[in-house]
Amino acid sequence: MASEDGGAPNMDPDMELLSDEELEREAEGFKEQGNAFYINKDYAEAFIYYSKAIDMCPKNASYYGNRAATLMMLYRYREALEDAQQAVRLDNDFMKGHLREGKCHLSLGNAMAASRCFQRVLELEPDNSQAQQELKNAESILEYEKMAEIGFEKRDFRMVVFCMDRALEAAAACHRFKILKAECLALVGRYPEAQSVASDILRMDSTNADALYVRGLCLYYEDCIEKAVQFFVQALRMAPDHDKARLACREAKALKAKKEEGNKAFKEGNYEAAYELYSEALTIDPNNIKTNAKLYCNRATVGSKLKKLEQAIEDCTKAVKLDETYIKAYLRRAQCYMDTEQYEEAVRDYEKVYQTEKTKEHKHLLKHAQLELKKSKRKDYYKVLGVNRNATEDEIKKAYRKRALLHHPDRHSGASLELQKEEEKKFKEVGEAFSVLSDPKKKSRYDSGQDLEDDGMNMGDFDANNIFKAFFGSPGGFSFEASGPGNFFFQFG
User: Fold this and answer.
1) N or C: which end of the chain has fewer CB within 10 A?
2) Could you tell me the pLDDT band of residue 12, with boundaries at 50, 70 and 90?
3) For the chain, what percent of residues have pLDDT higher than 90?
4) Is 446 left (phi over 0), alpha (psi -120 to 50) or beta?
5) Is the pLDDT of residue 464 over 90?
6) What is the pLDDT of residue 458?
7) Packing angle between helix 209-221 and helix 225-238, nearest 10 degrees?
8) Hey, is 353 helix, strand or coil?
């Protein structure tokens, strides 16, 4: 802002004809007008008149000091710093010049330089309370900088954000502090805040490589990798030695390529290769939460194809731990729970999904899981008879014949009382199972999860012997005979 040689390049040619005394008088008039505008907080006009005063008398330190104060009120701290420095070059004992230079340094985050300025003020005025306070502020900023550096090394990014917030209270115009805060906000997942800070800086300086890097970082962590790479490349154009941008760009490209390889292998049905590629992608950047959540979910999908259902469930759990809003991971895990007959867990996941997105499809999935859970809590009559759910009528009859004879109480009349009770219970269950599965109407209600009591069947009063007699005929139609200790054979009439 100030000219190094103290010249006045913008001076009106007519002014060169005025004497030094007349120039000083004109300059004082402009200064007084500037003061009036300053008092009325019309800083833009004040700036104009202080500039005119400087054009009249470019060797007057107080004019530069006044214009520096005005520029500070306009938040133009770098220009204000130039004027304050010119003021103290012209008059090293100009206390207000040193004070304003210190405040500019402080606002721009140059705490060491600010401290030297405030110490100079205290040399000139040992009791200057403003300089004493600003010196403490500078010392505090230096302390917060040290704490932030340690926090960043320890990856305690929340601590860094805290330190930068405190430092920015006194150094409001420091881009360096803002960028560090924005970077750490991105690293803790507070992307909108980080983008806002970076965008504010880019509005003032579109070539700021650090701000471009942070914008790219936010996009990268929001899984907009292609756009992120564009910002990293732009940052490297502005600052070819920007190590963070170079590393982030390399990782982003590697992650994108590996994920796409995995997707390609999956689409081609090469599930083993896809599983390995997704696993490799997960090692590239542990900090990329959203992308890694998708990679875990992708690997879970592959795992379910490979019948690695427990591993698939584990991968989905990791995905939702990284991103609690990731509906696809909940749906995938719920399906795996259904496939492994963990119905309570499936219902819990489907409830979470339906609460978030109340669609017809999600409602249907939830109801189906609730039905399977209800069915799972009843006796599994198919399991009791040892047949699958698609068993034919003949297969059900053969299974009943085998199980009923195996568990008939007469066969175990010589056993211990405890064993007799156990076998009697199993005999009754076999009869229940056959009575339901051999009746098309009851079987249909059972398979659909409906309560059999609604069909007039009270299992508490059920008599398995009646089923047995009906199946085998009259009691005289067969007998159990011992052929040795603990051995029986059946004799049919």
Assistant:
1) C
2) low
3) 69
4) alpha
5) no
6) 53
7) 170
8) helix
